[in-house]
Amino acid sequence: MAIAASPATGPHMRRLARREQTIEEALDTAVLIMEEAGVGGLSMSEMARRLGMRQPSLYKYFPSLHGVYDALFARGLARSYAAVQAAAEPLPAGVARIRGGARALIRWAVQNPALAQLLFWRPVPGFTPTEATFATSEQQMRWLGAEFAEAVRLGHLRPDAGSVEALRLFTVLLSGVVSQQMANQPGVGYDTGVFSSLTDTALDMFFARYTNPGGPDADPRP
Amino acid sequence: MAIAASPATGPHMRRLARREQTIEEALDTAVLIMEEAGVGGLSMSEMARRLGMRQPSLYKYFPSLHGVYDALFARGLARSYAAVQAAAEPLPAGVARIRGGARALIRWAVQNPALAQLLFWRPVPGFTPTEATFATSEQQMRWLGAEFAEAVRLGHLRPDAGSVEALRLFTVLLSGVVSQQMANQPGVGYDTGVFSSLTDTALDMFFARYTNPGGPDADPRP
DNA sequence: GTCTATATGTTGATAGAC
DNA sequence: GTCTATCAACATATAGAC
Q: Which residues contact B118 (CB under 8 A, 6 or more apart)?
């Protein structure tokens, strides 16, 4: 592996890094366009125009417009996942961690409406993400399932909170808050949005349903 | 008023009816296109093509593409409202009626994905419905608020169910079910969809939160 | 990797004959 | 109300010179 000296800083790697940087810059621009013109309003021409580049040059970085969407989808997944993990990891396992992750996801979605729409809805006709990028999505769901199982094991939630139905109901809540906030108050921040402010109430409602009446440490019936 | 004989069947009215019929047919076609190509995939050209008409002729019926979207928005509002009312009206006032209306709305949304997306999300960049059509939307919300107030009066729900927060939380649930169903299982029916099947569970969860522990007839605290 | 040039297609909308 | 003709933009994508 490390035969050549400092391969990560050699001219080849520098060139690769430069290329990566251009791609990142192009995706930044794409996000700006989508925030102005809608997710469906993205075009190679407008991207090139804003990048000070001719439109055909963009095809050296992306194979097609679909390729751009796919890269944006992957970026959205990675960033939302990172935001959730960064918020959830330091918290104690169980409902506290789940709550923190949910808050972080909704906050991220409200702050990144274009990418969030691409992930939560399917606004681009004929666009389906690549299998590879879609795998990240399933990873996120597996993580959430594991956290629910842990919350059950800790006695925070009743055993039926580990069912797929409970997990789906949880995603319904998150999706609902995000959808209502973005559709009815676009451009309004997380803290002032009338729907994003309902996040904790919605989570309370959900956890109350899956908590034993006797409290967090009550014995689940055998 | 009724000076001329049978004005509703005279030649003038017949002509008007014919015009209305053409417009309805055009909107039917528009819905089909949106279901195939996405809400943003609608175009005057494709509409005219399928109607066996030249594209400029369509401008005799709609002032612009935005005008078509506005008519579709109005149609979606009217039909969803009608579906909700038809299901809710025969039911006894209170939670039963609210539950029936919610079920009907989600069923309608799943069965009419294109119009539902136009109503629930804002997928068309730069399109905002006319004030007149938007008024219908507020009418629907006022009806829902009145039903909640009635449920509180009947003792079905706690007084705080009449708050705007509770009402918003309710719409979050409906929006969440619809969004998840349409995004993750497009084309799957209401009865077999894994998310639309959660409708009753979600409503149970909501009503449980706003019900007194002692049961529907327990005294609300003074 | 950048550019020019170009093929090829689409769209929304208007003017004006019949 | 229908049509033809047309305008002016806009788009994706490719070929090939430098």
A: B34, B39, B69, B72, B73, B76, B124
Which residues span the domain enclosing A18?
1-62
Rounded Cα distance between A108 and A144, Å, is 17
Write the pLDDT tens digit of every residue in A117-171: 999 887 887 788 888 878 888 889 999 999 999 999 999 999 999 999 999 999 9
CATH of the domain at B184: 1.10.357.10
Q: Which chain A residues are within 8 Å of B196, Cβ to Cβ?
A: none
Q: Say how far B62 CA is from D8 C1', in Å.
A: 21
Domain boundary pick from B24, B40, B62 = B62
For residue range B102-119, list pLDDT tens digits in order: 999 999 999 999 999 999
Q: Name B40's Cβ contacts closer than 8 Å, sequence gap at least 6.
A: A38, A40, A123, A124, A125, B123, B124, B125
- Model's pTM, two decimal places? 0.92
Q: Which nucleotide is nearest to B51 (CA to C1')?
A: D2
Number of domains in chain A: 2
Among the partner residues A38, A126, A180, nearest to B171 by beta-carbon distance: A180
Shared domain for A77 and A182, answered yes or no, is yes
